[in-house]
Each structure stands twice: as C-alpha cells, then as structure tokens.
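Q: what does this look like with zinc ion bound?
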Amino acid sequence: MNYDSPEADMSFLDKSTGELFQFLEKVDPVSAQRFHPSDRRKIQSKVEIYLRTGRPASELYKEQKESGVDVRWDTLIFWVWSERDALNERLDKRVDKMIEMGVEDECRELYSVAERTKAPVTSGIFQAIGIYLKKLKMLILGYREFVPVIEARAEDDVDALRKEAIQQMKTHTRQYVRSQLSWINNKLIPLCGQQTSRTPIYILNATDPTTWTTKVLRPALSIVQGPPPSLFPHLTLAFQNGAELPSPSTIFDRADELLNPTRKISPPDEWKHWLCELCKDRKNSAGFVVVGGDAEWNAHLQTRVHRNRLRRLKKKEAFDEWKAKQQQHIQKE
Ligand SMILES: [Zn+2]
C-alpha cells in the first residue's frame, strides 16, 4: 500500500497494534510518542486521521489549538468541591445508602435478565433496558461486585461475600471519583484557563453540609432569594447580567491553589516514551512505559506504585546483603 495516499484503504486499520504503531511512528512521530505502544484504540484513531486526511493528527491539533478552542456559549462553571476526607466519607455513606435502598435486589434482577437473555453480565444489553438507564451507572459500579453474592452456593458464607462486595463497591466508587477529579484537573481547568472570560470556573466548598446554603447554593442561584444580593455573591446573576465577576478566591479561599495546580503538564510535543524497569507491565515483561515529558516522568517517580516497588527492592537488596554477610560469617567460622 502507498503510505502517502490519503485515499488509503481503511482495512489497514485492522492490522495488529504493533504494525499500526510502527506505521504511526513513520507518519506521525509526534503522536506516536504520546501513546503507549499497546494503546490500540488511540493509535488506531491517529492512524485513521492520517489515512483520511493525509496529514498527521498532531499537526491538525496544533492548528486547532492555535486558532483557540471554541465554546458555543459563554459558560459559567461550578465545581462543587469537598475536602478529600469528607468526600470519601460521603462516598462510603452513599454506598451504604444504596445498600439500604436495595441495590442488591436490583443486581439480582439484572442478573436474572442477563441469564434469561444469555448476555454476559457486563455486556451492552443493559444499555438497551430503558427502565435501568437512569440507575445504570450506579448499578454498573455495584453490579459486578455483587455477582459472587448472587452466585453463592448453600455452603458459602454469604455474609462474608456481601461484606467483601460492599467494600469493593466503596473502593470502586472512590476510584471512579478520582478519575473524575483528574479529568477536572487535567482537562477542564487547563481548557478554561485558555479562555477565562467565556468560561469562568468557580469552586464552591461543600465540605461542611451545614454551610451548604451560604457557600454553595446562594452563589449558584440565578434568582435572588433571602437577604439582599450584596450580602452574598450571586455569581449566576452577575454572569447573566454581564457584570464583572469576583475573583474565585473571594468565593473560596483555596480557589487559586486548586485552579492553578503546581503540577506542571509538559507540552505534548515534548512527550516521549520513558521506560520504567521497576514497574513491570503485567502484560509486557519488558518494562513499564510512561508517556509524557519531564513533568510526567517525575510524577511517575512519585506515584505510590513506583515508590512501593522501589522500597521493596531496597528491602530485598538490604536483605540479600545481610544474607550474603551472614554466609560469609558462617564460612569464616
Ligand atoms: Zn516506575
């Protein structure tokens, strides 16, 4: 096939991830450096862009970025924020409440639907069941965890299984929230920062539920209620009237720090592949690849996984050293 032809055959996209990656390295080295060599979905989509347009995706994005990201409407964004401990506690309570409200029965129901339709329990069939749509996300978070409870045999300790399922549900809920937070930090905030006037973002502190009205509700209301507006910053009202908006730190004193994270993100055109020999990939024993610039690599070195591995290695080295000495000692005697 002619690699330079924009009218290329799309069946090329069915090739192996390795072949697609090699091709991408040739035609769009900047993009290739940004993705993990086994991230098929992303590699495939960049190759597809190249095949369709005849131009590297990285070049197209650069042009787009220079012309500015466009929002159709002026948008006032509220980030209803909580301190981590309070948030985690709230998330755990939310799971407990879901249990109380009978999430296990709903899981059983879904399970029996899955059995009747012979669909795998995690399949898309559930997306077609309208009645569950609203609760789908919530259920998906809890569903898989409850399968062992549902499938328990008479001799199993159902209470222990249930306890385990609830614990897992809590863990997965926290993980889900963490991924939402990193989306806010890594995508939303940098994007808003580029166009402050059209997409102001305010943090409303919801840590303490007793101050919900003054710290969250009132600033976000679009109609004036209660005391005169001068007593509370009515952000939505001011925004709608085109009035000058106060600095986010007047609404919440940690706003500056949270909206200007100190963790730097390297410019994507500086990204490359870093190989961490320590953090071995489960799939690929050659090592763990970090995609990014200096900042991302340094961030990896600070991750819990990496530091734990380092600590274990040091422990092992110290132990080996001690053992070797012991042996020498024994030999001497
Ligand atoms: Zn590592």
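The beta strands are 77-81, 201-205, 272-276, 288-292. The pocket of zinc ion is lined by residues 276, 278-279, 288, 300, 306 (CB under 6 Å).
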